[in-house]
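Tutorial, part two.
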Amino acid sequence: MNDLRYTLVSDGSSDASLLPILDWLLVENGVTLSIRSAWADLGSIQLPKRPSLSDKIRISLEVYPCNLLFVHRDAESQSREMRVDEIRRALSDLAASPPVVCVVPVRMQEAWLLIDEDALRWAAGNRRYSGKLAMPPISQLEELANPKDILYDLLTQVCDLNRRRKRRFPVHAYARRVSENIHDFSALRRLNAFNALEEEIRAAIESHQWNQVR
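Running the prediction step on this input gives:
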């Protein structure tokens, strides 16, 4: 085994922003193999009429085979524990699966992108922007009611366009670039949900000896 292939199953394309975070955590926790990541893009795949989470996981594993599976669900109005239980129940419907790690940000994954002003400037294509950004304190990220709105508002501010051009600013697309421009996610270790994710990742790495020199 020369590489570690993982697949991320999530609800939407914006969740692909989690890939750089997962890559960082794997390396930070000692993975010595080459890492090959894939976001399970199910948009062009025929799914059941009302696919369950089990359906999405099963089809993702068929199309994106892997050694490690990440399943993402935002906590939103639920607790992290409830979302983890939801994922575990979905997995129990499968005949088999690779090792699974639950990715459950509180309240949503956009909260984990609000840690680096420079990354926002680069993502918005205006790294010289010198205005003051009202970044929320990292310790309070899990208490934000709607971090997605905050992220989008900050990106729209940084783009520094006139009112007409701002209406056409593709903020959704630019938001996906933020995590690609963050090189150190250690600040997120102040958050309980992130620590829980890292603990699961570390356990999976040690259990399968992906941190051994080959």
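The chain has a mean pLDDT of 93. In part three we will examine how such features are distributed along the chain.
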